[in-house]
Design goal:
CATH class: Mainly Beta
Number of helices: 1
Structural class: mainly beta
Order of helices and strands: EEEEEEEH
Number of strands: 7
Strand content: 35-45%
Shape: globular
Number of domains: 1
Oligomer: single chain
Distance between the termini: 33 Å
CATH architecture: Roll
Helix content: under 10%
């Protein structure tokens, strides 16, 4: 599994890592990091529907929750 370094401030994502969109029209959507595009400011992610889409890397964050808006502690007790 290849580790890629995103642009400054965007963090590091690994192929297959769950991410969440933190901005834009699809804010809060979950997906799986696929790869950086030729322009390293953009990345491909696979959405829950199986479709691959491109988004600015600055809109991506690691997902620590399987459900948007719920933290891991909330999920443990749910």
């Amino acid at each position: 599994m290849e580790t890629v370094t995103a642009p400054a401030g965007a963090g590091v994502f690994q192929e297959g890592e769950e991410v969440v969109l933190t901005d834009g029209p699809y804010k809060s959507n979950l997906g799986v990091f696929v790869r950086l595009k030729e322009d390293p400011n953009w990345a491909d992610i696979t959405g829950r529907d199986g479709k691959v889409s491109s988004h600015p890397v600055e809109w991506l964050a690691r997902s620590n929750s399987a459900t948007p808006g719920r933290d891991a502690e909330t999920q443990k007790t749910a």
